[in-house]
Amino acid sequence: MAKQILLLAGDFVEDYEIMVPFQMLQMLGYTVHAVCPDKKAGDQVRTAIHDFEGDQTYSEKSGHNFTLNATFSEVDATSYDALVIPGGRAPEYLRLNPEVLNIVRHFSESDKPIAAICHGLQILSAAGILKGRTCTAYPACGPEVTLAGGKFKEIDIASAYVDGNLVTAPAWPAHPAWIAEFVKVLGAKIEI
């Protein structure tokens, strides 16, 4: 039976950071359920495209609509093997939802694989699971990681960092490294 992965989404999630892992993990044979609080399977979330165009921070443009394939209110975290948290603006408000934080705590306490990228670390910080952990995120989230008791690791934007069951990356340019490391933590071996 394929491992089941839960993916937390919300309006204005970063387009690439939801679409790419959702599709790549399915391509590898995993079952991926994308959910959003107060939405059900078949509903959509709007996405934002963040790009690095030489400004002091990323630019933001409208992305695609992403169709959820599972219902948040029906999620039983114990039935999932791993968790994916994309970035964008969604984590900013998702971290205010107590059920989202309980789901994240379940994965942490159960030592199940967690992959978070970019602003997704805002949810991990709010859930209180970063104390004593080393991770990376979009650099603007570094202070949140530190305030949550974690050690922020500044790395190249195309790299990923692994601390036990936690796989993190700064932004979508790290997808190849981030997803490859996450798949290793899931226990898969890919030979090319």
Ordered list of secondary-structure elements with their pairings:
Elements: E1 4-8, E2 13-14, H1 15-27, E3 31-35, E4 44-51, E5 59-67, E6 82-85, H2 90-94, H3 98-109, E7 114-117, H4 121-127, E8 134-135, H5 142-147, E9 151-152, E10 161-163, E11 166-169, H6 175-185
Parallel strand pairs: 1-3, 1-6, 2-4, 6-7, 7-11, 8-9
Antiparallel strand pairs: 4-5, 10-11
Helix pairs in contact: 3-4
Task: List the defining traits of the structure above.
three-stranded mixed β-sheet, 192 residues, alpha/beta, 11 strands, Rossmann fold, six-stranded mixed β-sheet
Characterization of this structure:
This protein has 192 residues and is α/β, with parallel strands linked by helices. The protein has 6 helices and 11 strands. 28% of the residues lie in helices and 25% in strands. It has helices at residues 15-27, 90-94, 98-109, 121-127, 142-147, 175-185; strands at residues 4-8, 13-14, 31-35, 44-51, 59-67, 82-85, 114-117, 134-135, 151-152, 161-163, 166-169. The protein has one domain (4-185): Class I glutamine amidotransferase (GATase) domain (Rossmann fold). The strands form 3 sheets. The protein has a 6-stranded mixed beta sheet, sandwiched between helices. It has a 3-stranded mixed beta sheet with strand order 2-4-5, covered by helices on one side.
Give a short overview.
The protein has 192 residues and is α/β, with parallel strands linked by helices. Helix content is 28%, strand content 25%.
